[in-house]
Amino acid sequence: LDCPDPLALAAFYSELLGQPTTYQSDDWVVVASNDTSSGLAFQLEPDHQPSTWPDPSVPQQIHLDIMVEDVAASGLRVLALGATKLDGENVYGDPAGHPFCLIRRPAWAPSIPAGQWA
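Above: the chain sequence. Below: its structure as tokens.
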């Protein structure tokens, strides 16, 4: 994900996903379950333009759906982490403006470990 501050955005997603930072340089930070698995990478883009969701004048660039047990409680938690509420049901913007949704964990998905997202 392009962003103006890779370390800050990685910290947000690290907390949101309950995953550690596995790599860090001045312009590239990775959050993953471990240093041998895929994860999310955050790349420095000093001229990054945040999405104008839902207005398409600046596209969303990426849109993640984050499974949680309790959407309402998790909404309060992501706001406390620095997200902003966007138009639409359970739609938020991360600190760099990328939209994401909180969705209730479907029955077929594994349970979310206690202590991670409500």
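The helical segments are 6-17, 71-81.
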